[in-house]
Amino acid sequence: MSEISASNEINVSASSRRSGEVDTSRMSFMEKCGFGAGDAACNLLFNPITMFLSFFYTDIFGLTPAVVATMFLVVRLFDAFFDPFYGAWLDNTRSKVGRYRKWMAVFTIPFAISCLIMFYTPDVGYTAKVIYAFVTYTLLSILYSCVNIPYCSLGNVVTSNPIDRVSCQSFRFIGAGLASLFCTLTLLPLVGFFGGEDRASGFFWTLSLFGTLSIFLFLFCFFYTRERIVPPQNAPKEDLIGSFKKIIHNDQWLSCITIMFLDCLPSFIRGAVSIYFAIYILGFDEVSASLFLTVGIVSGIVGAYLTPVLTRKWCKVTIYKAVKLVCIVLSLVLFAIPSDQIVLIYIVVIVLNIIHSIGTPIVWSYIADVDDYGEWKLGQRASGLCTSGNLFTLKVALAVGGGLVGLVLSVTGYEANVAEQSETAIAGIYALMTWIPAIGYLLTFLATQFFYKLNRQTMAKISKDLYGTV
Question: Does the pTM exceed 0.85?
Answer without folding.
Answer: no
